[in-house]
Design goal:
single chain, 8 helices, 0% strand
Length: 171
Amino acid sequence: MTDEIPESERPSKTAVKKEMQALQQLGEKLVKLSNNELAKITIHDEHLIEALSTARKLTSREALRRQLQYIGKLMRGIDLTEIEAGLAKREEGQREQAQQFHRLELLRDELAETGISAIEKALNVYPHGDRQRLRQLVMQIDKDAQAKKPPAAKRKLFQYLKELQAAKPAD
């Protein structure tokens, strides 16, 4: 009985329950990752890897709930810093991709609205871009708008900007 922690120093039942729910949610995030994304996250515990693999195969909602509880229980005994860091890195990458996508949309919209005069701005951002192709796409957007056609040229312009972004030389 001397090894027991005094009641005043033990966490409350509510705190323990919240911690378990947080671990289950972390486990659920891991289960939802694709195989490639999960492979990028460092997990040293073989039992946890096996439990995650099993959870990904389950189709029964109740079985998945129990498996997530088990995953949470397993994660209580391991160091989660590498797993949390891997998930944070993944989420940061997704945020950066969304920001890049948004910047491309804004540039495309500016090119579509302003026309030829905005091409210089696009070429400042992507100096390796083809001025003639940008001009043709912008002019086609104007023609489509006047003819009340679907915005196919706008989509082509966006795809071209994505290509330029992917091929952008390192600064």
